[in-house]
Amino acid sequence: MPFILGAIALLGAAYMWYIRAKGAADMAGELMNAAGDVRSAARRFGYKLRKREHPVDGIDEPIVAAAGIAEAFISLDDLPTRGQRTGILQGLQKAYRTDLNGAEEAAVLGRWLVAQCGTPDAAITRIVKKLITLGGQGEVQPLLEVLNTAASAEGGSLGPRQQEALQEIARRFGL
């Protein structure tokens, strides 16, 4: 009898380990799909990650920089909502005259760039600096259009950190 109980316990433990391993494999697969989305977005915009450079330094398209700034902007005071993310997509489509697919890929790459910067504040500072080198004063109007569309989504109002970020952006662009 103890032998049978021991065998059942051993089979139960093996089954439990199998379920855990399967769950970990499923999660790894999902992470690989997310990484695939970032890779395909990077390919579309010709983004190249260079050695010994920060990922933001590889941005060559203003739409990617604007998407990154907008993603960081909506993350400043609260967790971003689905409406704010939709607002970013609409703003990118309107300001940069792109299709929905292009706007989504820019947003995915922008979100990844914000994650590489660590905090939304650091991301805004660094990406705004890069956007200025890409297009100068001509890039402030499309950027503000994207930020306004994202901020006004769902009837939202600007939080204190978002207002500070807008002042920082205005200062950087010399407005």
Strand content: under 5%
Helix content: over 70%
List the total number of helices: 7
Helix-strand pattern, N to C?
HHHHHHH
What is the total tally of β strands?
Answer: 0
The shape is: elongated
Mean pLDDT: 82
Radius of gyration from CA coordinates:
22 Å
Q: Please describe the biggest sheet, giving its number of strands, its sense, and whether it closes into a barrel.
A: none
The low-pLDDT segments are none
Give the end-to-end Cα distance, rounded to a whole number of Å. Answer: 83 Å
Structural class designation: mainly alpha
Walkthrough of the structure:
This protein is mainly α and 175 residues long. The chain has a domain at 55-172. Helix content is 75%, strand content 0%. The chain has seven helices and no strands. Helix 5 (120-135) packs parallel to helix 7. The chain is elongated, with a radius of gyration of 22 Å.
Write a compact overview of the structure shown:
With 175 residues, the chain is mainly α. It contains seven helices and no strands. It has helices spanning 2-45, 62-75, 82-96, 100-117, 120-135, 140-151, 160-172.
Which key phrases capture this entry?
175 residues, mainly alpha
Task: Set down the secondary structure blueprint.
Elements: H1 2-45, H2 62-75, H3 82-96, H4 100-117, H5 120-135, H6 140-151, H7 160-172
Helix pairs in contact: 1-4, 2-3, 2-4, 2-5, 2-6, 3-4, 3-6, 4-5, 5-7
